Amino acid sequence: MRQRGERHHRVGESHYLPESDLKDKGLNRNSIGLLGSVVVAISTVAPVYTLTGALGPTVNKVGTHAPAIFLVGFVPMLLVAFAYRELSKAVPDAGTSFTWTVKAFGPRVGWMCGWGLVMATVIVLSNLAGIGTSFFYLALGEAFNSDWVKDLDDNKLVHVPTCLVFIAIATAISYRGMTVTKRVQYVLVALQLTVLALFIVMAIGKATAGDVPTSISFSWDWFNPFGIDGGFTALTAGLSLSIFMYWGWDTALSINEETAGGPKVPGRAAIISVLFIVVAYLMTGVATLMYAGVGTTGLGLNNDEDDNIFAKLADPVMGSGLGILMFVAVLASSVASLQTTFIPVARTLLSMSAYEAVPKVFSRVHPTFKTPGFATISAGVATGAFYTIMTILSENVLTDTIYALGLMICFYYSLTAFSCVWYFRKDLSRSFDDLMVKGVMPALGGLMLGAIFIKTLVDVADPNYGDGNRVAGVGSVFIIGVGLLVLGAVLMEVRRVVSPAFFRGEILKRDTPVLVPDED
């Protein structure tokens, strides 16, 4: 039987020596392959859910240049995906960003990177549950032709409990393990992508036929980021939203201890997922622009009264008969992602606990399901509490959490990218390929995301940033994004007192990989 840390490699190749301080966490080995990993990653990104929540705000920032933003946002994602791929091959640990940044930069940076990942996941889980609840009532209202049912979503006393039920169901499925997860995901992902493809075809068809008053002609200028009105501020705001739209592909790496087929499979799944998503976004962006235009009234994408694009465009594009399919697709997308998004947060907490960075209770693995049970349940409880509190504090919780999420994602993605460069620094002179995929590409991705993080950090200091919601004069986006990072720094210092061994580097050590040739 292959032991923890052994590599799959061919004779004549080089390979990394096993990391002696990595711990087997008791997860279910070989429970998911390449296809399942790609499906889980796409499900976590949730293209249909993401587009309905973020396409409107993106167009609001950059107008018809939304496709350009999707392309520019795709570049750092792809560059960082290469960093993840290389790190996963050398250090296949479920803690991913946490473990890798500890290896490269030490316990403190690693702890904060892990915290950033956990908080980003909690934020997006709450957003997923919120949109899922909204489309649940929209779909019911469409099915029964009842405005009263649709309006139930506006009632917080109905919306919040329903949202908590969705969170509980998703938590229960994730608790059951990867086998149950991938079976559910095959159905939900196939459903949402089929409906999205139908929407794209019908929107472009009606727009080109000239039957839609708001339609505009296709232009290659839509793909030019230098044509964006508003300059660098509009570009970074749009990119922050774009980063949110791509987030989730790294779930394929967080299940690397459970993936069959060798250490290359998780990284390959992540890159395939990113490439698939950018194509879906570009096609949807073009289709919606051509059909609805960028007006501020009616179907126009700049109509501030509409937070969910597909809720507005489903019936006009697909007709009242097929329009309900889009409501079901968004519901399926958000519910599917709600379930798979528990994967990275639970496994990060599991890994942090295994190395004593957080309390030991988070390292409990269910004896039958082989899942991080306590960590999964804790993530569900935290998500429910966060969404309930934010619904009370914010008038537009969905938009505010999207803006804050972009900040958090840039934080931990950029740290992970830089950790790749530093961790493999001794390999960079071995070959041109090593220099590019372990050094130049991750460094560029990290710098791009770091620049977006810093610019967004400055922007959110303005209380009017986002939807202008304030608490005691402070913008809600600033409270969510910066406040959670500060809270993490405080909790880290508390944990340092409780678990000094981890913070002294005695449990998970900083080191560099040892690459050795195979014997012929």
Give an account of the 3D structure.
The protein is an all-alpha fold. The protein has a single domain (29-517), classed as Up-down Bundle (Amino acid/polyamine transporter I), CATH 1.20.1740. The protein contains 18 helices and four strands. The protein has helices at residues 34-45, 47-62, 66-90, 97-105, 107-144, 147-151, 156-175, 178-209, 231-246, 251-254, 264-292, 309-340, 342-354, 373-393, 397-423, 432-459, 476-498, 500-503, and strands at residues 14-16, 470-471, 474-475, 515-517. It has a two-stranded antiparallel ribbon. A hairpin with a 2-residue loop joins strand 2 and strand 3. Helix 1 (34-45) packs across helix 11 and helix 9 (231-246) packs across helix 15 (397-423). The radius of gyration is 22 Å and the shape is globular. The model is unreliable at 1-13 (pLDDT under 50).
